[in-house]
Amino acid sequence: MKTGIIVIIVLVLLGFFGCSKYNGLVKKDEVVQKAWGNVETQYQRRADLVDNLVSTVKGSANFEQETLTRVIEARAKATSVQINANDLTPEKIQQFQQAQGELGGALSRLLVSVEKYPELRTTEQFQTLMAQLEGTENRIAVSRNDFNGAVNEFNSSVRTFPNNIIAGLGGFSAKGYFKAAEGSDKAPKVDFGK
Description:
The chain is an all-alpha fold. The protein has a single domain, classed as Substrate Binding Domain Of Dnak, Chain:A, Domain 2 (Up-down Bundle), CATH 1.20.1270. It has 6 helices and no strands. Helix 1 packs across helix 6 (163-170) and helix 2 runs antiparallel to helix 3.
């Protein structure tokens, strides 16, 4: 009889321990999902600004239509890639990052083209949009860093013992990180001679 009571007490304690670990993983998963939502919000802000930027640039006579078309197409592609916060695999994040990288590249080409139009660069609306775009890029970097921090904490919990047992039973798996774009390890070449 005494042994049965001890076994029940041990099982109840293990149940409380398991529930506590499970609830901790749920809270960390929610932090990751919130951080992902913040990342998406900042990318959406950039996509919204792109429309205004393109409209402003379109107003400039003789602007390269091909450049504008590429920016518009890249924006459409970037906003079409949607990832569920519950499915943040490295492959999905890479797909999202690639679409956003294409938009960033198209914006860079647009800004290089703008250099040929000094009257456009001096307009107040264009300068305001550029300041907002720069601020948004900074916010994206901060959001991505916060997301990677939340993923790091979550992944550490999911992979350590005894949480890994509870994580396996609860269906939790490691999340993917944002990584540097391919080729970003090489310094850009700047040539003012041209």
